[in-house]
Amino acid sequence: xxxxxxxxxxxxxxxxxxxxxxxxxxxxxxxxxxxxxxxxxxxxxxxxxxxxxxxxxxxxxxxxxxxxx
Length: 69
Prior knowledge:
Blueprint: H1 4-14, H2 28-38, H3 43-46, H4 49-68
């Protein structure tokens, strides 16, 4: 949070009409791995950090979208 709060404060100052929302992203990598296992991805593919991060980012976005509907 040391770097996040100053960054979000700058965002809020620069774009006062846009809401800044914090999403708890703990455990999203675990959820991403579970999703990959359920999808039948091979172990080698599940070790691809970039792919894990993409799936985790998707989970974070889905969480946000679900909470705003």
